Amino acid sequence: MLLIFKKFGGMNETNAKKGKIVIVSGPSGAGKSTICKKIVEMIDEACLSVSVTTRPKSDKEIDGKDYWFVSKEEFQDKLDKGMLLEYANVFGNMYGTPKDKVDEALQDGKIVILEIDIQGGKQVKSVYPDAVMIFILPPSDKILSERIAGRGRDSSESIEIRLGKANAEIAAAEEFYEYKVINENLEQAIVDCISIIRNA
């Protein structure tokens, strides 16, 4: 079935007074990045939070758009000064969410999409109890493995590590995440996520 995307308009009067945080998590390769980008394209007032990371920048990535790329020392300085809403160590690299940027967006009435891991999601939820938590699930372990391999940037060993972590994440999501969306059909997964955001 062909699904036609519709651009979702502005918020109603009640929601316009303050923004909303939406936490989107899922195992590596589940498709959460693509889903988050589509949500931002389709909801006028949605914006994607840009994380700070110590991970090396790839040739295709843009500083300030994909991530804010910083040194380990710079990251620690932000952490020490309380400038990060949440942070996590993912495969040896640090990731964090700039608190000031999120607060500014909320004050402007934005729906702020945070694409972060479960550890970060729990940290944000403790600060913003009203945050909407969505976990993106792959249809199966086999498909997840194929998606990770298809990206062409992970070694066989790295894929195995990511798959092992995925199983642990899925188990944790059962306890902490209110909403779960299976990304078997990308268009449907996007529609499902937008419906959750609008109605949560």
Strand order of the largest sheet: 2-7-1-8-9
Q: Can you identify the CATH superfamily?
A: P-loop containing nucleotide triphosphate hydrolases
Helix count equals: 8
Provide the CATH topology.
Rossmann fold
Describe the structure.
This protein has 200 residues and is α/β, with parallel strands linked by helices. The protein has a single domain, classed as Rossmann fold (3-Layer(aba) Sandwich), CATH 3.40.50.300. It contains eight helices and nine strands. The strands form two sheets. Strands 2-7-1-8-9 form a five-stranded parallel beta sheet, sandwiched between helices. Strands 4-3-6-5 form a four-stranded mixed beta sheet. The longest helix is centred in the last third of the chain and has 21 residues, at 156-176. It starts with 12 loop residues before the first helix and ends with a helix.
